[in-house]
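Technical annex, item 7. During the second reporting period the consortium partners agreed on a shared format for inverse folding records so that results from different sites could be compared directly. Each record opens with the tokenized structure and is followed by the designed sequence. A conforming record, contributed by the partner at site C, is shown below for reference.
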């Protein structure tokens, strides 16, 4: 049985129409002979709204246990609705909480770590022909209480389940088409990256662009789980995250502005003195006062006054991509 993990982000689950659309994507995969295990986030903004409610009801001193009990409900909401949408489309489905899906964590409420995944229930449901829909972002601790896995934690649920059921791929469907060579809103010429390595995605997060929860990417890297990022609103291929990634050289650029300084990072493989020199020369030719901050084989960072950050980003993108 070829199982896959299909994880939907909150923007893909924002209303019943979008949930039905996501269900249709799952059913297409079924028709291709795959056996999906679905992982869902809370509907768009739901987690923030629940946090705001918690603050209003319980104030700053509210218990972490109750906060997690509340937050986990967002994903449970999505899971039950998704299972209904699948059933409405004629498929057999079953929603599961993190605990029902066998995810055991430590007791660090709000940022729990996964200790074990027992996939017995998932396997049983798959075997009986059902599509399991797992509420992301949550598990259960040794005391039997609900915990959550940190913001963006449904990503961690997805990769942990991928490992536990030996899924051939872990698909992330969101409202973006993949990872781009730079933020398309800042660099109109940015294009979608076909393949990128775990290391590059981790460097990207350290440089200010977290495309998936960092813990989840580290987990995927440690267990060599191939991640596929794509849009739930377009059928085109997205970005694959693997150990090897794509070709050597600069893969993408990231920008982070703090106070008076913007830092533009060139991220790639086997970068060295020649790329650093090329970047500094390009900045100088454009009249941008940049200095090289740090350089490693995977990252070269140039710092400039904040007002010139975006110009430097565009300049370097044109030179390297
Ligand atoms: N709903 C949670 C959050 O917004 C977890 C997730 O979406 O992965 O952080
Ligand atoms: Mg969310």
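Designed sequence (site C submission):
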């Amino acid at each position: 049985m070829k199982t896959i993990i299909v994880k939907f982000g909150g923007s893909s689950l924002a209303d019943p129409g979008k949930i039905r659309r996501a269900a249709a994507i799952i059913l297409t995969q079924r028709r291709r002979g795959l056996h999906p295990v679905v992982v869902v986030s809370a509907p768009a903004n739901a987690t923030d709204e629940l946090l705001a409610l918690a603050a209003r009801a319980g104030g700053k001193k509210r218990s972490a246990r109750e906060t997690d009990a509340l937050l986990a409900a967002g994903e449970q909401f999505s899971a039950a609705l998704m299972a209904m949408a699948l059933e409405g489309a004629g498929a057999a489905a079953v929603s599961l909480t993190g605990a029902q899906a066998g995810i055991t964590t430590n007791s660090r409420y709000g940022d729990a770590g996964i200790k074990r995944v027992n996939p017995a229930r998932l396997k049983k449901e798959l075997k009986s022909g059902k599509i399991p829909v797992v509420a992301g972002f949550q598990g259960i601790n040794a005391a039997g209480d609900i915990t959550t896995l940190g913001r963006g934690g449904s990503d961690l649920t997805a990769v942990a389940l991928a490992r536990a059921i030996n899924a051939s791929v872990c698909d992330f469907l969101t409202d973006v088409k993949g990872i781009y060579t730079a933020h398309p809103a800042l660099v109109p010429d940015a294009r979608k990256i076909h393949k990128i390595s775990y290391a590059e995605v981790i460097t990207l997060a350290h440089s200010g662009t977290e495309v998936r929860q960092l813990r989840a990417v580290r987990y995927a890297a440690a267990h060599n789980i191939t991640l596929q990022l794509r849009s739930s609103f377009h059928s085109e291929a997205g970005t694959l995250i693997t150990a090897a990634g794509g070709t050597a050289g600069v893969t993408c650029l990231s920008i982070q502005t703090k106070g008076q300084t913007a830092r533009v990072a060139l991220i790639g493989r086997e970068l060295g003195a020649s790329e650093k020199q090329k970047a500094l020369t390009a900045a100088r030719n454009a009249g941008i006062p940049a200095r090289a901050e740090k350089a490693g084989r995977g990252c070269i960072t140039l710092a400039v006054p904040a007002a010139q950050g975006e110009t430097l980003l565009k300049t370097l993108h044109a030179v390297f991509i």
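Residues 10, 41-42, 47, 74, 136-137, 151-155 surround aspartic acid (ligand 1) (CB under 6 Å). The longest strand covers residues 249-258. All partners now use this format for quarterly exchanges.
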